Amino acid sequence: MPRLAASSPLITSDTSLIPLQPTLARLEKAAAACHACELWRTATQTVFGDGAMHAEVMLIGEQPGVQEDAAGKPFVGPAGQVLAQALAEAGIERQKTYVTNVVKHFKWISKGRLRLHQAPNAQEIAACRPWLDSELALVKPYAIVCLGATAAQTLLGKQLRVTRQHGEFMASLLAPFVIATLHPAAILRIPDPRIRESAHHQFVTDLQKVATQLRSRS
Known about the structure:
The protein is α/β, with parallel strands linked by helices. The protein has helices at residues 24-31, 66-71, 78-90, 122-139, 149-156, 162-165, 184-188, 193-217; strands spanning 50-51, 57-61, 97-101, 108-111, 114-117, 143-147, 169-170, 177-181.
């Protein structure tokens, strides 16, 4: 059994925008008008979560990228393709998952004609936290997969290091099984093909641990 690590307490934040009787559709509509931080000013639109209601697996990343910002859906760009491939290899049906991000707006800096990803800060993460908490409360996933350091540290504590603790099930009140692994975008950024292939293999291995728990449930 993998070593368990204690999760951090939930971050508190303003919940005034959350509908009184929330559904995923109502949450998405409300989030479209969210001005809780300044990211809405430069993002094209809010990118809310997407997937199956009461999905067994919720996959949580950092924030939408440039393709997601344009499409209004999470994980539709190259990182989403890596995720879809890894899920298929691990034996998890993509259409039976729910995917979302800690931050719902694309944060970027300009470099010529390009819009380059910029990591969200603590204030922006806290401003978005009520949306993520509401998604978790409605979906009630059996397993949560934190994709990358931002998601893992937001949900499991700043002390967590994905490079060392990926693939370990963490003790948490959020779901029966919570695990951290690489973000697929991080895999894409690895320049060396052999190292990138190794990272992809590790990503799939971590997801296979989740798939094993799903099979044992049925």
